[in-house]
Each structure stands twice: as C-alpha cells, then as structure tokens.
Write a structure and sequence with these properties.
By secondary structure, this protein is an alpha/beta fold. It has 15 helices and 16 strands. The strands form four sheets. Strands 6-7-5-8-9-10 form a six-stranded parallel sheet, sandwiched between helices. Strands 11-12-16-13-14-15 form a six-stranded mixed sheet, sandwiched between helices.
C-alpha cells in the first residue's frame, strides 16, 4: 500500500515478488505518475496493479498488508484490513521482527540522518559488518532480510511514520537514539490544539524506546530529553543523556554546533559497543556530509554552494544559517533560496533570523511562501532554474549560496529529494 517514487516501495515489491508472493500494489497516484517506479517492476510477473486510488476489495482475502510510511494509521482501508483480520505490517518493523540481529535505531525531528550515517561510518571504520536502512532514499530495509545474519548490526534511521509500525508491533531497537524533538508534520498530526498535535507526533516518535527491555539502551539528546521525561512514560532500558559537545581535541568535519551535538550522540553509541576512542575520533574526522543536509556541492568563483534541501522546517533552516553565517553574521554573506509548501509551522523565528545572515533571499513559489513573502524582502520565482541562476548572480567571492527551503517541496517538485537533485544538476552547470 503506497508504491511511491522514492524507491523503498519498489524494493519491497521486488523482494516480496521474488519470494513468490501474489502481490497487489495499490497507490493513490496514477500509472502515469508512477511510471518510473512501475518500470523497475516490469520483470516481476506476479504483480497486479491497482492505481489511481485504493479499493476496499483489495484489503480483503490477503495474508497481510505492507503499509508505506505516511499512510495514516486511521486510513479507512487499513480499518478494512483490520476488520477482515488481516495483519498490517511496515517494512522496517517487519525486518526487525524477523532479522534476529542487533538493531540500532535513530529518530528525532532534526539530526537523525546525520547521526545514523555517522554511526554507520564509525562501525564500518571499526571493521564491523553493518548496513544502513530505514528512512534512506532508495533503500528497502525488508530486502536485506535474506542476508541479515551476515551483518553484525543494522542501523535504521526511523521517522515518526515508520515508528508507527514499531508501536503497532510493540517493538523497539536494542540501542535507540532520540536526537531532538521540534515542531514538524503538524499538518499530518492536526488536532484541536497545538499541544495535542505535538503530543500525537511525540507518541509515534516514542516507539523508538517504548518497548525496550531492561538491558537495552536509550541515548537521548539534551534537547529531546525534557519531552521524554514529560510524555515518555517509563524508560525501561538504560538511559544516557550525553554532553552536547565533543571531548576536548575531537573534531568533526561538518559545519555548525548542531553537528557537534549530533556527533556526540553517535560517539555514545560507538562507546556502548566498545569501539576504541582512537577509532571513533579518526572516523569523525573522515566523515563527509549526508546528501541534502548542509552538503557542500562545489565552489564557483569563490562562492561556496550548499544543498540543504532536507531542511523542511524553519528550525532546520535557522540552524543552517547559524552554521554557515554564525561567525560572520554582520557581513551578511548568505544568498538564501527558500520557500515551498506549507506544513502548518510557526515561521516568526525564521523571519527574524533571515535578515541577520542573508544579503539576498530568493523565494520558491508555494503555499508556505505565501505566508511569509510579505514579511521577507525577496524575489519570488515559479521556475527553479531561473531562481538558481538569479541567486548565483547575486553572490560574490567569499559568499555562500544556500538552498535551505524551510518548507515542504510539493508543488514545484515531486519531493525534497527531487528538489535537491535538480539543484545539484543546476549547480554543476554553473560557469
């Protein structure tokens, strides 16, 4: 249920078809919209497609339903499956149920990707056999199942929707990391009050630790810990809340204080697995940025160009501005490309921060942009190529050109990854 365009659903479908399943693939998107995904399934002869909307009859007479992340847990089609006593599973949680290897799970509103990739990098540097799955572009976690026993650990980046599957299955990873908890997805968790929406969002996130056992470990970031204390009920495993900075003399190659915070969480995971400090320290120094997260693409005419497309909240964009412009804020050396689709988040803090760091703002057309364009001095575009070319034209030697949208991507783009990929292609053509 939910093939999508990010590759995870395609990988799940190929795996299940390869197991001999008689598979029905259903999605709200049409055959034309899903053409790239469907093409990858052309060799699978045991798949029936039901596209352009779900049908209740497809949720009867099946052995189980595999639900994509983002499909509402209270979907009428999921209710139909439950009414018909059909189990509902999700890719990452089903993998954890069946894999039989130690699981390291990472969640948080911001920082989860960087921390997950860092843990993976450190463990590989230490000679461990480890794979990275969960909320990773193009990766079907379920498809790793046949080879799972070949690995020492699975590191899973887990968003709130994927953790719904853990909550449903009453599972939590052996080692869990909860990086930060900030407002996000309030359009998905919409409720009668902001406080209730936040709590619903946190309840899904809490699946990362809720079902841990006494010998499991929860590593909580200092920013997230008060929410765990307030709403998290009982933490059954060991709880560690590390310092926000690295040990004296340790460095990470990524910009910003927030990345030192992220790195410290990864360090605590590695230490809990008895990885020597010397290996951890060296790994931090050799780690490169995660695609789409303050990713340095290239330097052109002395202008450093960063792809931060995964910053889809105001908090994330504020962090990016501080990371790249913090020490030279008075010089205002950032040309910012921002804007997109509304997620129902409060924008006042971002509106105040932008003038501190930005010499120019370029806005991408969208429902979210409509909320802020009268409060920010910036030129608006509905053509991405023209927006990037205009932004580059405003940057001078020593400046930073930053794509950090603060909003979702829908409208001009298929998703935030499409937005980032288009940006990288356009940047590589700049002369």
């Amino acid at each position: 249920m939910g093939l999508g365009l990010l590759g995870r659903g395609v990988g799940d479908a190929i795996f299940l078809a390869g197991c001999g399943a008689k598979l029905t693939v259903t999605d709200f998107k049409t055959k034309e919209q899903l053409a790239t995904s469907i093409k990858k399934l052309s060799k699978c002869k045991n798949i029936k497609f039901s596209l352009g909307g779900h049908k209740l009859r497809d949720f009867n007479g099946k052995d189980f339903v595999l639900k994509a992340a983002g499909v509402p847990i209270d979907s009428p089609y999921i209710k139909e499956a439950r009414k018909n006593k059909i189990p509902v599973e999700m890719s990452s949680s089903l993998f954890v149920k069946l894999a039989g290897i130690p699981i390291i799970g990472v969640t948080g509103t911001r920082g989860k990707s960087t921390v997950a990739y860092l843990i993976h990098h450190i463990l590989k540097s230490a000679g461990k056999k480890v794979f990275l799955g969960g909320n990773v572009l193009g990766v079907s976690t379920l498809s790793f199942l046949p080879k799972a026993k070949q690995y020492d650990y699975a590191v899973l980046e887990l968003d709130s929707w994927q953790l719904q599957g853990f909550g449903e299955s009453k599972l939590s990873p052996d080692i869990s990391v909860f990086t930060t908890f900030l407002d996000d997805h309030l359009n998905y968790y919409a409720s009668t009050s902001l406080s209730t929406s936040r709590k619903k969002y946190f309840t899904d996130k809490a699946g990362i630790f809720k079902y841990q056992k006494g010998d499991d470990l929860l590593i909580a970031g200092k920013q997230a810990y008060p929410f765990i204390k307030k709403w998290g009920s009982k933490v059954r495993g060991e709880l560690v809340v590390p310092e926000e900075s690295l040990p004296r003399g340790w460095k990470i190659s990524l910009p910003g204080k927030h990345n030192e915070y992220n790195a410290r969480l990864a360090v605590e995971v590695a230490r809990s697995l008895w990885i020597p400090d010397a290996v951890i320290k060296k790994s931090l120094a050799t780690f490169s940025s995660v695609p789409g997260r303050l990713e340095l693409i290239r330097m052109v005419k002395g202008v450093r160009i960063y792809n931060d497309t995964n910053s889809t909240t105001p908090d994330a964009t504020i962090v990016a501005l501080r990371a790249l412009g913090g020490s030279t804020a008075k010089l205002k050396k950032i040309v910012l490309i921002a804007g997109g689709a509304d997620k129902g988040l409060e924008m006042s803090a971002l509106v105040k921060e932008i003038p501190k760091y930005c010499k120019e703002v370029v806005l991408l057309k969208g429902s979210g942009t409509e909320k802020i364009k009268n409060k920010i001095k910036g030129k608006e575009f509905d053509n991405f190529k023209k927006a990037v070319q205009y932004a580059f034209g405003k940057a001078k030697r020593g400046d930073v050109l930053l794509l950090s949208p603060a909003f979702a991507s829908f409208g001009m783009f298929k998703n935030e990854y499409d937005r980032g990929e288009q940006f990288v292609r356009l940047v590589k053509k700049l002369k």
